[in-house]
């Protein structure tokens, strides 16, 4: 597993997994139940990678089968965070054939989606691996899948941004508009939030950066700024308050991420590793 990737406990994830199993199984697996109605025997299956990439989600896949039958044995041949190649066996499963067949699609869907995210995340991270800037994810996640999608970005080498609105204060453009300005927004929010929540402010100009500095923002986001302006903003912030962390965001691509990192920002946030990732092709093969 990646040094960054930590799954939530099963008490949190199990209700989600059970719901996804119920969605797929419905009133019963007509095919499997009819095929094995008289003699449910044990069997063995292998998971095989059909494309190169970074594996993520095998512990989750194992739990899917375990929820169907606690006696199923799911042995991960590789750990999450490992690069796989086409034809490589990544897991071996042994147990009741009905559990293997009923859990196959949900388990594979999760692992394929999460592995696709970790794979693209790793590609982004590699672009700036020799620079201090750290890639972070965003809240642009699939409803119901945020915990797992953010786990996958961490497996790929990124750092998680806030999980939800309750983690930290982020004053964005619409908040600024609603408050009547950065000064008003920071002042009002600071008087009402509990310690030790941090305050991050989204800025789009040097004037807004100056306002965020004046009112002691903890983190300043440079949003959709041209690289030259971003470089000026970083210099301004470093000169006035070295404790302030700097985040860059907005239309970050594989082609631009390195130039952004070279401006000296601490963090680069991007939704692309989640929203633009392609599932990693995996398959399950029953061994007869």
From TrEMBL:
Catalytic activity of the protein: nicotinate beta-D-ribonucleotide + CO2 + diphosphate = quinolinate + 5-phospho-alpha-D-ribose 1-diphosphate + 2 H(+)
Keyword Cell membrane: no
Keywords: Glycosyltransferase, Pyridine nucleotide biosynthesis, Transferase
Quinolinate phosphoribosyl transferase N-terminal domain boundaries: 29-113
EC number(s) reported in the record: 2.4.2.19
InterPro entries: Aldolase_TIM (IPR013785), NadC (IPR004393), NadC/ModD (IPR027277), Nicotinate_pribotase-like_C (IPR036068), Quinolinate_PRibosylTase_N_sf (IPR037128), Quinolinate_PRibosylTrfase_C (IPR002638), Quinolinate_PRibosylTrfase_N (IPR022412)
Pathway(s) it belongs to: Cofactor biosynthesis; NAD(+) biosynthesis; nicotinate D-ribonucleotide from quinolinate: step 1/1
Source species, domain of life: Bacteria
Name of the top EC class for this enzyme: transferase
Entry GO MF terms: nicotinate-nucleotide diphosphorylase (carboxylating) activity
All copies of domain Quinolinate phosphoribosyl transferase C-terminal, residue ranges: 117-285
Protein family: Belongs to the NadC/ModD family.
Purpose of the protein: Involved in the catabolism of quinolinic acid (QA).
NCBIfam families: nadC
Listed name of the protein: nicotinate-nucleotide diphosphorylase (carboxylating)
Gene: nadC
